[in-house]
């Protein structure tokens, strides 16, 4: 929805305590066609994520404390904007990738191609191979049903964070919804503003979600953030949240 032709694509990787996988993810992202910048936003890691990312070839921006995924995305996008302005370049497209994709990140090219071709304004990954996500279905259903109610669109993988979008689309979606509600809100807000969205199947894979206490707390936070994002955007959804039950 912009008349400007981007000069390239910037990969933004929000990361927290991903020292074991970040190097592989960065190296794979740097191989993507049309990518001329890989930026890791270290969101308050307590390990060597930032150091390892830099050694792997990424530009790195750090949060002194953990601020959440949406804040990391906004920090990364702002850093790219400042670089574009400094260099007098036209705005890059933004490809967001999870830090734990590892070597599979090199398979993300199909997310970029429809954007650079001007066919759509945001692509959303649909993983062609999935891993078992213990208890994850409740949050997915909450997000999917909320998006459908708000826009009429039924996404395949509504929480997928692998997304490429134009700078114009990103700016239209700001401020981003808090934390793990960001993907749900991005989809709703852009569709309501007339932007085009396309789902793209890609052979990406990330770390499986476990079933231990830490994983359960993570999913509870996801549910909370998605519910908040939906409630802000649709009062009818707010009233229905209390009636949602696991299947």
Provide structural commentary.
This protein has 247 residues and is an alpha/beta fold. Strand 2, helix 2 and strand 3 (59-63) form a beta-alpha-beta unit. The model has no long low-confidence stretch (mean pLDDT 90). The protein has a 7-stranded mixed β-sheet with strand order 3-2-1-4-6-5-7, sandwiched between helices. The chain has helices spanning 22-30, 49-55, 69-87, 109-116, 137-151, 167-173, 182-192, 213-233, 235-241, and strands at residues 9-15, 35-43, 59-63, 93-96, 122-127, 163-165, 197-202.
What topology emerges from the helices and strands here?
Layout: E1 9-15, H1 22-30, E2 35-43, H2 49-55, E3 59-63, H3 69-87, E4 93-96, H4 109-116, E5 122-127, H5 137-151, E6 163-165, H6 167-173, H7 182-192, E7 197-202, H8 213-233, H9 235-241
Parallel strand pairs: 1-2, 1-4, 2-3, 5-7
Antiparallel strand pairs: 4-6, 5-6
Helix pairs in contact: 5-7, 5-8, 7-8, 8-9
Mean pLDDT: 90
Q: Tell me the span between the first and last alpha carbons.
A: 40 Å
The radius of gyration is: 17 Å
**Shape by Cα distribution:** globular
Q: How many DSSP H or I helices?
A: 9
Which range best describes the helical content: under 10%, 10-25%, 25-40%, 40-55%, 55-70% or over 70%? 40-55%
Major sheet description = 7 strands, mixed
User: What's the helix-strand series?
Assistant: EHEHEHEHEHEHHEHH
- Give the low-pLDDT segments: none
What percent strand? Answer: 15-25%
Features:
alpha/beta, seven-stranded mixed β-sheet, 247 residues, 9 helices
